[in-house]
Fold these 2 entries.
Entry 1:
Amino acid sequence: MSSIAVLGCMWGDEAKAKIVDYLGITADVVVRFQGGANAGHTIHHGGRKYVFHLVPSGILNPDTICVIGAGVVIDPRALENEMEQLRGQGVEISHRLLIDERCGLVLALHQDLDRRAEHAKGEQKIGTTLRGIGPAYSDLTARVALRIGDLKHPEWTRQRLAQLYDYHGQAVSTGELESVATSLFESWQRLSDFVTTVDDKLYDWYLQDKRILFEGAQGTLLDLSYGTYPFVTSSHTSVGGIPVGCGLPLRCINKVIGVYKAYSTRVGDGPFPTELTDAVGDRIRKQGNEYGSTTGRPRRCGWFDAVAAKYTARINGVDTLAVTLLDVLSGLESVKICTGYWVDNQRLDYFPSDLHLLPQLQTEYLTLKGWEQDLGECRGLHQLPRAAKDYLEAIQDLLERPVELISVGRDRDQTIVVRS
Ligand code: IMO
Ligand code: MG
């Protein structure tokens, strides 16, 4: 049996898609299991740039089936736009995309609620992507949401819509409700061929030894339970999100690859112990082109945080590490890795869950020699400069897991596979 989970293990944007794309060449099935159009997964392939929000990144490989599991929330208009754009780029989607009929729907109402909730929080805003993700998941939990499969039944959909607006205390005219319903029915016309149940198919494929790849969105420090709550997203981004989000039993996850950037970034608000607000941070942002692929916002940049990273490796049962964007650190005189926190003269060697403690942490660093060499052409571990190898070894030792993949550039072939 072979299934691999590729999980972002920090605050998202770890270049998961690059790793999914690389491994996806040999995958039969790629599965998204949580999140929604808040994700922005970028792949550079054949001189072209592809950005995915809802469609699994495996769609570029013509032999791969792409699955959107029940744990994903779908904005039908965003999905249709994305499919349209992909078709325009020559990507064949028919018969290769399956959407679970249980997926919750993200409506314009949710984006409106997202915007208003952020506005009301003022200084304490989360800095969401404003894609309506939080409100859509809240409605699912409150059992008032519409699911994509509901659209089969027009009368039921109208009823549920009316109840939903009522639940949110929003007065809408019959005409307005009908126009929302009509646009949903139009989307249904275009999407219904893709909508099915995916849990049964995934289980059969698993038994047939098909290679299944789970594509995580966001990262573990944005997980609803294990992230820096409330500065998190509203889904379970950690490994536990997989069985719940696609209906495959837990034991069908055979291997977990944790994706970590060679440094840290965070987009949106919330604690970030190793954040650099100086010229080094600016340099990393520039070199790494650290601007959000969904919202275009500049990302906050900082050093690799081995304390946080070790925590997320444990939470996810990470087997091996993929270290991405290593090339971005070239040219720095020295590079640092956070190995511990201090608060009130006490050393902490764990990632605290107390939101009030997190901003007070002083960071303890291991400083290593930097390297000058551009890494873009390196295709084997032996081609990396000694200092870069030392840096990776330090990460490996601190996380107590082997590095299996190293990314030294955005293209698929700018990947180093470490054979143990
Ligand atoms: P990928 O899959 C980085 C962040 C937002 C905000 C918080 C909540 O590309 O790694 P939300 O809109 O989900 O309610 O916002 O989560 N966030 C991401 N940050 N990468 C992402 O996705 C993200 N998706 C959401 O910036 O801080
Ligand atoms: Mg992204």
Entry 2:
Amino acid sequence: MRLERFASKEDLYARAVDIIVNAKNEGATTFGLATGGTMEPLYAEICETNIDFTNCISFNLDEYVGLSAKHEQSYAFYMYKHLFHHKPFEKSYLPNGIADNPTEEAARYESLLQQHSLDFQLLGIGQNGHIGFNEPGTSFDSLTHLVTLEESTRQANARFFDSIDEVPTQAFTMGIQSIMRAKSILLIAVGEDKRDVLERVLASKFTEEIPASILMKHPNVTILTDLQKGENVQ
Ligand code: GLP
């Protein structure tokens, strides 16, 4: 695991763009993508570059159940708005939040993922240690599945909705095993509200209660943070 700390968010996101450009230059064609507030500045930066993803495939980590791609808070809409509209991929996959049969949809998505192995996976992190929407307690062996969101996750994401009542209660997410199959992983943890969880992840105690703790076992993971050493982060 490589941990890189930045004094400014500007420098952090510039480094993240470099890592993605380098991955692509080194032959990565299949990218796992993430959503959330953390990724908005990154996608804005990427849109300013001349990187071309038109020969690449993307897979998003997760999608809310019950929201169609036209819903402004769906992750499909988010991706179109922040990235795909400006930087299209040859093909972009997300779970279908309004699939009739959730079990079949999770299996369909996992099967697609297994057909196209991920060269690169981008990750944010939830305050409870979730990656994608793999909440604490999720098996490290999990594949793409339907999850019931923790109340704390719904509250953390309520800022994107008009009220908490509108935040979906369920989501599809790649599993931990699906994520860990990626050849390289970039996790970005920005802001004070990620301090506790980053400290817990860096402590390298592997526990399903902290889903992101498994990343310390991945052979090629980089963590970028703006949290400085000496403030309780190792
Ligand atoms: C969300 C997403 C995650 C994201 C995380 C952090 O719920 N499902 O993929 O990484 O929580 O989000 P944010 O960047 O807004 O803090």
